[in-house]
Design goal:
This protein is an alpha/beta fold. About 45% of the residues lie in helices and about 15% in strands. Strands 7-6-5-4-3-2-1-8 form an eight-stranded parallel β-sheet. The chain binds pyridoxal-5'-phosphate (PLP).
């Protein structure tokens, strides 16, 4: 019997979707060099899915809604390092401030002030990344280099002792044009190096370039990513 290649493609897609979290996770881990941190993006997924990835060794997870994160956190093991990757409103910082391990999306001085304030209340230092707008789409949030420089030079920033800036984060344009995506990731890496030189030379903790998602993490790694945020390639489509 002849089987059309279209049919085979379909079967293959179904098979891929049926693959378990364990297999997906192993495949992604294989594809990432040592030294690049894997953040498993579990937004919209049930705690059972997170527990399965945890059982197979994953410890870093990310969510993009404060309330969702706040609800999931107490149901899962305490040694999970929770990252926040969404757009964060100042009045929502309080939900995640007691436990969050890294906030990726800091895109204003006002937000950083709010994080510092909640960190003081919780008697801790909260690690953050500055988010940059590197895509051509205006739907994506983030600072320009000039805005970041203003933030870093501000008196307000100099007085903050409960936030620690650990690097930069960005999202590339959603496009099949690899050259463009590469260029945008390259820009983020260049921004990181400029800020490192100018403001963080003596701070080893300023070391992260968070870039790369399921569809573009290979390109991001080529451009110097230290931290990839991967959801659907591990947990399936949302
Ligand atoms: C959802 C999300 C991801 C993961 O996206 P996938 O394509 O599912 O890997 C990464 N980063 C951010 C900021 C996200 O919102």
């Amino acid at each position: 019997m002849l089987v059309s290649s279209q049919y085979l493609t379909r079967v293959f897609i179904l098979f891929e979707q049926d693959m378990g979290i364990k297999e997906n996770l192993a495949e992604v881990q294989q594809a990432i060099p040592h030294g690049v941190k894997l953040v498993a993006v579990s937004k919209t997924k049930p705690v059972e899915a997170i527990a399965e990835a945890y059982a197979h060794g994953q410890r870093r997870f990310a969510e993009n809604r404060p309330q969702e994160l706040m609800q999931k956190q107490p149901l899962l093991p305490a040694d999970i390092e929770w990252h926040f990757i969404g757009h964060l409103l100042t009045n929502k910082v309080k939900y995640i401030a007691p436990f969050v391990g890294l906030i990726h999306g800091v895109d204003s001085l006002k937000l950083l002030e709010a994080i510092n304030k909640e960190a003081i209340k919780n008697n801790r230092v909260i690690r953050c990344l500055l988010q940059f707008h590197i895509a051509t789409e205006d739907t994506k949030f983030g600072l320009s280099l000039d805005e970041a420089v203003d933030l870093l030079n501000s008196e307000s920033f100099k007085l903050m002792h409960h936030v620690q800036l650990c690097g930069v984060m960005g999202m590339a344009t959603y496009t099949s044009n690899h050259q463009q995506v590469k260029h945008e990731f390259g820009n983020l890496a260049a921004i990181f190096h400029q800020l490192k030189q100018r403001y963080f030379m003596n701070e080893p903790s300023f070391c992260e370039i968070s870039m790369g998602m399921s569809g573009d993490y290979q390109l991001a790694i080529e451009q110097g990513s230290t931290m990839v945020r991967i959801g659907s390639a591990i947990f399936g489509n949302r």
